[in-house]
Write a structure and sequence with these properties.
Elements (H helix, E strand, L loop, with lengths): L4 E8 L4 E10 L2 E11 L1 H4 L7 H22 L9 E7 L3 H18 L3 E5 H7 L11 E6 L4 E8 L2 E7 L5 H11 L6 H9 L24 H12 L5 H33 L6 E6 L6 H8 L1 H5 L1 E4 L3 H4 L3 H13 L34
Parallel strand pairs: 1-4, 4-5, 6-9, 9-10
Antiparallel strand pairs: 1-2, 2-3, 6-7, 7-8
Helix pairs in contact: 2-3, 4-12, 5-6, 5-7, 6-8, 8-9
This protein binds 5'-O-[(R)-(carboxyoxy)(hydroxy)phosphoryl]adenosine (KG4) and zinc ion (ZN).
Length: about 350
């Protein structure tokens, strides 16, 4: 018989946010009892990107305090927690080690199960923190480290149908922002500037756009921006026009590739139900992308679901939720589980970065 109320403490430390959360499941509903997030933006903004060593140190400086804060916010004691879950990959090794060691130590000391969670599974399931959703559905995950379309067939049954062959989408936003001397993280800055500029001012390439698949390439786009930046004075007007042109180009790419992914999904999944597409990860916060994707809804008879921004960016709640799903299925991990900096959600998906795109062959 399954336990009536399940509570898991989830730890996230794979990139530049340290987060600890307690999530409860009762009567088939999830409730976030606490979700403490400490961003490291102030540490990394000087460098225009995440510095792995500094990230790991910052996680280790604060993780114990966040665990205690998560407990007190939830008005909870360790006694009432059933298991400890921690992101064990993919991500930056130093940060993963901090979260995994903290999780294992707690689990051992408290004599509770330890659950190693794939960060991407956290993003894939994050929508359940706020609403019910039936399997299967399509996931578009767009973050600083990942860009992929994955069919969430069922729990623990994932098929990736497209990804990037070079930079992640968030990385493209961050690198472009750096070229334009905008702040870090770049995504929100570009979005702000884009709203004030002329999107037709610069014509940027759309790599792989004519290939009828769900694969992306963003590296050439960044080089094109770099070339234009080199030939212009970086005035406020220039920044606005370039941001607007970049945002419009990204919108077109995401729109077209999502259309392709929907076609592929429909061929692979024979379901009579309306297709639901969950857009998760930090870049899913981008309103312009959201508006652009929504235009596909009528035509494709589908619905886009966006988790709240606090659950789009990295958070412990999605890790606790994935922990609950695993707890219910007795999927526990031994205390010798090693963090996995590379850990695809779809076990059969091959590592694509650095591969050359050959039409039709991915
Ligand atoms: O999911 P996330 O918080 O961390 C990773 O797992 O990577 O995503 C961070 C990424 C950064 O690249 C950031 O620039 C991007 O999400 N991002 C955005 C926006 N907000 C955050 N990109 C575009 N528009 C936004 N509004
Ligand atoms: Zn993430």
């Amino acid at each position: 018989m399954t336990k009536k109320i399940i509570r898991v403490l989830g730890i996230e430390s794979s990139c530049d946010e340290t987060s600890v959360s307690i999530v409860e499941k009762s009567n088939n509903k999830f409730r976030v009892l606490s979700n403490v997030v400490k961003s490291q933006i102030d540490i990394h903004k000087f460098y225009g990107g995440v510095v792995p060593e500094l990230a790991a140190r910052a996680h280790s400086d604060i993780i114990d305090k966040l665990v205690l804060k998560a407990l007190s916010d939830a008005k909870m004691t360790f006694k009432k927690i059933d298991a400890i879950s921690a992101t064990a990959g993919p991500g930056l090794l130093g940060g993963l080690l901090v979260g995994v060691v903290a999780g294992k130590t707690l689990a051992h000391y408290l004599n509770k199960p330890f659950i190693a969670v794939n960060h991407l599974e956290g993003h894939a399931l994050s929508i359940k923190l706020e609403r019910e959703i039936e399997y299967p559905y399509l996931l578009l995950l767009v973050s600083g480290g990942h860009t992929e379309y994955t069919i969430i067939k069922n729990f623990n049954n994932y098929k990736r149908i497209g990804t990037t062959i070079d930079d992640a989408l968030g990385e493209a936003f961050d690198k472009t922002a750096r070229l334009l001397k905008l702040g870090y993280p770049g995504g929100p800055e570009i979005e702000k500037y884009a709203a004030l500029g002329n999107e037709k001012k610069f014509k940027l390439p759309m790599p792989l756009i004519h290939e009828k698949n769900a694969y992306f390439s963003f590296a050439g786009l960044k080089s094109a921006v770099a070339n234009i930046v080199a030939k212009n004075r970086c005035t406020e007007k220039f920044k606005k026009d370039m941001s607007a042109s970049f945002q419009a180009t990204i919108n077109k790419i995401i729109f077209t590739k999502t259309q392709n992914a929907i076609n592929e999904y429909k061929q692979l999944v024979k379901s009579k139900k309306n297709l639901k597409i969950v857009v998760a990860g930090g870049v899913a916060a981008n309103k312009s992308i959201r508006i652009s994707l929504k235009q596909l809804e009528k035509r494709e008879n589908c619905e886009f679901l966006f988790p709240s921004i606090k659950y789009c960016t990295d958070n412990g709640a999605m890790i606790a939720l994935a922990g609950i799903e695993r707890f219910e299925r007795n999927k526990f991990n031994k205390l010798n589980f090693k963090p996995r900096p590379r850990w695809p959600l779809d076990k059969n998906a091959i590592f694509m970065k650095g591969k050359r795109a050959v039409e039709g062959k991915y």
